[in-house]
Amino acid sequence: MKRILLLAMLTGGIVVNGMAQTKTPVGSLGKNDPKAKAILDGVSKKFSQLKSVVANFVLKVEGANNSVTDSKKGTVYLKGAKYKVNLDGQELISDNKTTWTYTKDANEVTINNVDPNSTSLSPAKLFTNFYDKDYLYRLDGETTEKGKVLQNIEMTPTDKSKNVFKVIVSIDKKGQNIAKMKVYEKNGNHYTYEITNFTPNGSVTDATFSFDPKKYPGVEVVDLR
């Protein structure tokens, strides 16, 4: 789940820190907020117009007491429904038909078919109307952080059996980009994803989204297709 959720930071803009500025009333439980939907629809529309995305990000892992226990840097590439994520010796690659998960320490790659019916978040779903099917959402006010006005949307999965019980998505109001996302797990852990660099419509070839075992001498292949 953590691998997939970090992909939510594909269309960000800045590393954010700051203080709360305004707060909106909490909507009715069990009912989606039309203001939040309008914001998410705007992000989805803008994202659909991009040919490709390359973004660097920082993942911070916090324990139940909000202390930072780990911090990692990563890079994500996206072209349509295809994606590749590099994070701390791991690679997650998908050409929208097959996924490859490579672990450097073990020099092992696991291969799976893409499940089009999966409810897991992927780039293809994240910036479409997935939120109308799998989440309840509401606008949770605005914050001003590093000169940017961010619109914070609280999302809760409709499937309460998931380990993740809440996600806060912060969207740059002017740029209509996801700037930050914080994921809350039932075990008390929090994961914050912040963009450090964002390049839309960069040069990304289709070869980026496939795994070539010749480039990984001695790799062990676990094919689960």
From TrEMBL:
Residues 1-20 form the signal peptide. Keywords: Lipoprotein, Signal. It comes from the Bacteria. InterPro entries: LolA/LolB/LppX, OM_lipoprot_carrier_LolA-like. This is Outer membrane lipoprotein carrier protein LolA. It comes from Chitinophaga pinensis.
